[in-house]
Amino acid sequence: MTSKSAAAAAGATVYGYPRQGPNRELKRAIEGYWKGRVDAGALRATARELRRANWAQLAEAGIDEVPTGDFSLYDHVLDTTVMVGAIPARHRAAFDADVLTGYFAMARGTQEVAPLEMTKWFDTNYHYLVPELGPDTVFSADSAQQVAELAEALSHGHTPRPVLVGPVTYLLLAKPAPGVDAGFDPLTLLDRLLPVYAEVLADLRAAGAGWVQLDEPALVQDRTPAELNAAGRAYRDLGALTDRPKLLVASYFDELGEALPVLAKAPVEGLALDFTEAAAANLDALAAVGGLPGKRLVAGVVNGRNIWVNDLGTSLSTLGTLLGLADRVDVSASCSLLHVPLDASAERDVDPQILRWLAFAQQKTSETVTLAKGLARGTGAIAAELAANRAALASRANSPITRDPAVRARAAAVTDADARRSQPYGERTAAQRSRLGLPLLPTTTIGSFPQTGDLRTARADLRAGRIGTAGYEDRIRAEIQEVVSFQEKTGIDVLVHGEPERNDMVQYFAERLTGYLATRHGWVQSYGTRYVRPPILAGDISRPEPMTVRWTTYAQSLTERPVKGMLTGPVTMLAWSFVRDDQPRADTARQVALALRDEVADLETAGTGVIQVDEPALRETLPLRAAGRAGYLAWATEAFRLTTAGVRPDTQIHTHMCYAEFGDIVRAIDDLDADVISLEAARSHMQVARELAAHGYPREAGPGVYDIHSPRVPDAGEVAALLREGLKAIPAERLWVNPDCGLKTRAWPETRASLEHLVTAARTVRAELSGS
């Protein structure tokens, strides 16, 4: 290590922490508030206690500077919208009457007003609420939440660092408001927004903030010269302020690239860079600009997005190189720890030998502190930790779990022909229409139906031994009967069995494939109060026995109408798991695809004529920079085709995607060679249908007409209007009618009403098309 003074200054910090609490206390409090069981004061008290506990855990672990402002009741981008006063006009009255009511109306909508659009936070499975801006947007500062949380942390004796979404990223994530020309560029509002940030920074300084972190992850994407100039102007202006704290500009998820020189010369006191996803690129770029003399560098060397233990030796080597490139080097996770579960030590069911390979948020915090200690005092000060780390890494590398020769041989034998249907779409479609006999504008749902309290109780009772397998399966059969009966009575054309046996669309399959590990407490926020437990993809993947055939076949026995077989696709199985980092993702995707291919074959043999393989994560996993996209899409689309290409021409293959920006991957959607695709479209008012049309997409599509992430029930007239909008882009003979996504998170009353309205709307528009 080259600089003792720099090493002595090394500290440990993180950018953010899981919000939910060890037992998802925040979820329960918020949902209790929505149902009227918890009042606003009790909800806020729960939030305060969770923040206090988070900071206490961080401080006890040895974190020198704790984040504030990262905690949210729903979404941190929505919090930023409140902070800058960009409340949409349709929500303003509710917000002015009661802040919480207005806040949740923006997040979820009400029966009277639609919510903000929701999409993925860069290439993660976290969803943010998209700001709606226009040329008439007036910003105004509201720093109350940020100041209050700063004051809370100070009152508990911590050194806090408020974390805000940066102004450039906020505008780059925004979209034109409804009624605003689609060509409007929200970045043109930058000069109007910066004074609001200046006011917030002044408020935070007055409240005691020494540093404020401004997150600019949008700058790790390919950016135009105009966008880079805007970033330079933003931080020139903010840096020139006299009434402000010190500024730390943070980027993560990829290399900062051409934005690094812009920020390096800006008059800010520090930069935070990701040295996990793009370690070599950021190191080279940092050296190329001559380092950060006189500035603070926060080095994200602990992966904040995956759960494998850090290679401490490699991280120390990286940190040692960085010491000569900045005035002060601090150690951090690469991004907010929001993206990983809270505590691996709570996983009592995981083999202790495997548990030592895992690091959740608390363990990553400890790794960060250990690395800071080693950087400041030398490796002798952490000799025991280094030895234990080397042993854990060796244990994983040498474990038979990670390598199965039979799986590897099968994957190696795959040919191009294995990933191609036997007939082109134009020839398949006639055979499928003859077999299925569907009407114009066929109706269906995406797969899941409401997961009731009774179903969750039945699963818990089975795990606890309070009921046996036979009793549990009786409950599942009864639920499938109810779901099928409802769909038949409602008039839905292609049915689903409702997935009552499934805890999660990825976890269910992971628990039935070799090479996966499941957790009991590994909850991660997906959006709002929706938490998932991503399984851990630890080794080579195979399918010991059929996973879905039994329940799909049972559902089909109850009806003459076609019942879809429902699977989660290989890319989503990777994206919504904590994927192994010891081999290329393309290799892992091929293994998963082959396991799913076996399931597709068994479904078809059992008589299933429609099989849906969901890939909602295809867009989410798209590399943030264009240079990596062609390679990714090549293996991702091949994995889907490898899963589905073995079926007969008259078996109809569906896929589904939701809550992402699809314009970037329309060609890849075409390359999947699915017969039908359903996509989220309700919040964006059929934008995806127009994107498909612009591409010349030749297959059938179902742009969603019902936003399932809102409790709002659209009436039949509203659904019919969306269908007519879809028909402007997609011919009637290729248009399906379906919700945006699965109905698992909805209650039965709103589900019944919404689907009844959907069927009524489809019949109305069919009659209009036939002239009757």
Q: Layout of SSEs?
A:
Elements (H helix, E strand, L loop, with lengths): L3 H5 L3 E2 L11 H10 L5 H22 L4 E3 L7 H8 L5 H9 L1 H10 L9 E3 L6 E3 L2 E2 L10 H12 L4 E6 L1 H7 L1 E2 L13 H17 L4 E5 L9 H15 L6 E5 L8 H6 L5 E5 L4 H10 L3 E11 L9 H11 L3 E8 L18 H4 L5 H17 L5 H15 L7 H8 L12 H12 L16 H12 L4 H22 L16 H4 L3 E4 L6 E4 L2 E3 L3 E7 L6 H9 L6 E5 L1 H6 L9 H21 L4 E5 L14 H16 L7 E6 L8 H6 L4 E4 L7 H9 L4 E4 L12 H12 L20 H23 L2
Parallel strand pairs: 1-12, 2-6, 5-7, 6-8, 8-9, 9-10, 10-11, 11-12, 17-18, 18-19, 19-20, 20-21
Antiparallel strand pairs: 3-4, 13-16, 14-15
Helix pairs in contact: 2-3, 5-6, 9-10, 13-15, 17-24, 19-20, 24-25, 28-29
Detailed description of the structure:
The protein has 772 residues and is an alpha/beta fold. Helices cover 44% and strands 13% of the residues. The protein contains 29 helices and 21 strands. The strands form six sheets. An eight-stranded parallel β-sheet has the order 1-12-11-10-9-8-6-2. Strands 17-18-19-20-21 form a five-stranded parallel β-sheet. A two-stranded antiparallel ribbon has the order 3-4. The longest helix is centred in the last third of the chain and has 23 residues, at 748-770. The radius of gyration is 26 Å and the shape is globular. 53% of the residues are buried. Mean pLDDT is 95; it is low at 1-8.
